Amino acid sequence: MATKVASTAKSATQKTAAKAPAKSAARPAVKPASKAAVKKPLAKKPAAAPAKPPVALKAPAAKVAAHQASAEPSMRFYHSKALREKTHAVLNALEAAPGHPRHGDALADLVTDLIEAGMDYYFMRALKQAQVGFVTEQSARMGMSGAVKLIASVNRKFIVRMNEDQLLVVAQHIRALT
Questions:
Q1: C-alpha angle with apex 131: 129 to 133, nearest 5 degrees?
Q2: CA-CA 20 to 30 A from 17: which of 6, 32, 168, 177?
Q3: What are the phi and psi torsion angles at 131 (to 5°)?
Q4: Cα(178)–Cα(76) distance, rounded to whole angstroms?
Q5: What is the pTM assigned to this prediction?
Q6: What pLDDT shows up at residue 78?
Q7: What single DSSP character describes residue 160?
Q8: Of 43, 170, 24, 53, which Cα lies nearest the Cα of 103?
């Protein structure tokens, strides 16, 4: 019986030994090249930015800005007639007497009102149409209220410090959007 176990063990080792060369022969003799040795194609250089079209020197800045704004994609929002009237009243007063000291405050208030109207139009209106529910709407309104207050306080600090020419530029920009 011992000879039978020994012969079985011997035959098992012979079988595995016979299989071993076959496995090693199946493997490729050459190892794959290292990552450093493999050449990767070079990335293409970005194309040079197209030159801006020449702008006529005698064209008013408002007309050039309005033309550029209309040529680009845009998203605008609808606001109330009362806000439109306030917008025109503030802009007309600023353009009529740019040196008045309270125009910065009036323009800052107008910008805040426009921000509130835009946020309401773009975000709250969509939530109402989606019927997300009262709690979700109120949560969104609270978050947007905080964002509007933050933006308004930052805008106010900059707008009230502007000189006459800077206020007129902001007024021209707002007028081009209306």
A1: 140
A2: 32
A3: 50, 55
A4: 9
A5: 0.57
A6: 84
A7: T
A8: 170
* Interatomic CA distance for residues 151 and 107, integer angstroms: 14
**Chain-centre distance for alpha carbon 2:** 81
Mean pLDDT along residues 30-36:
51
Taking a C-beta distance cutoff of 8 angstroms, is the pair 94, 137 a contact?
no
Between the CA of residue 99 and those of 29, 61, 74, 85, 145, what are the distances in Å? 87, 20, 33, 22, 32
Can you list the pairs that 139-148 forms with residues at least 24 positions away whose Cβ atoms lie under 8 Å? 144/119, 144/120, 147/119, 148/112, 148/115, 148/116, 148/119
Taking phi over 0 as left and psi of -120 to 50 as alpha, with beta for the rest, 32 belongs to: beta
**How far is it, in rounded angstroms, from Cα 130 to Cα 128?**
5
Q: What is the pLDDT of residue 53?
A: 45
C-beta separation of 118 from 74 below 8 A: no
Looking at the predicted structure, is the pLDDT value of residue 31 above 90?
Answer: no
Confidence band (pLDDT; 50, 70, 90) for 43?
very low
